[in-house]
Specification:
140 residues, Nucleotidyltransferase, domain 5, alpha/beta, 13% strand, 3 helices, elongated, five-stranded mixed beta sheet
């Protein structure tokens, strides 16, 4: 170890001093550990629990099928307009007990077509709407 200046061998140290980098990283780590829990839980809400239950189709249930091009079917009968859909839904809402409305939307259907069917159900006073989906296929 050369302490004095009389040695004669002046070597240049080419190693990077990483101490300031480590200090900055530790400070950033502490800041993130403190702020992340506050940022993710700002408003307390109780999230719904997923109940994936198979739907049982009963004879009185109504199946609304929505194709990829937006055509709506009442069971197997094509509907010409939103008013026709709404009239049928109002008649179904008056029945006791009220039938379940099961919506089968094509995967390529636009959200607007499905949303309009749900809005028509709400407008008619339908209290139970189901969405029919398929089980995912195994990738194996």
């Amino acid at each position: 170890m050369n302490v004095g200046g009389s040695g004669g061998d002046d070597e240049v140290v080419s190693a990077i001093n990483t101490t300031p980098l480590v200090d900055v990283m530790l400070v950033l780590l502490i800041i993130f550990l403190i702020t992340i829990p506050v940022a993710t839980h700002t408003v307390k809400v109780k999230l719904p629990v997923d109940h994936n239950q198979p739907t049982h189709t009963k004879p009185g249930n109504v199946v609304l099928a929505i194709t990829a091009d937006g055509q709506t079917y009442w069971n197997t009968t094509p509907l010409r307009s939103r008013e026709e859909l709404l009239n049928r839904l109002v008649e179904a809402a008056r029945q006791t007990p009220q039938p379940q409305i099961q919506i089968r939307g094509d995967g390529a259907a636009k959200y607007m077509a499905v949303g309009q069917a749900v809005a028509a159900c709400q407008e008619a006073g339908i209290s139970h709407i189901d969405f029919i989906t398929e089980q995912p296929h195994d990738a194996n």
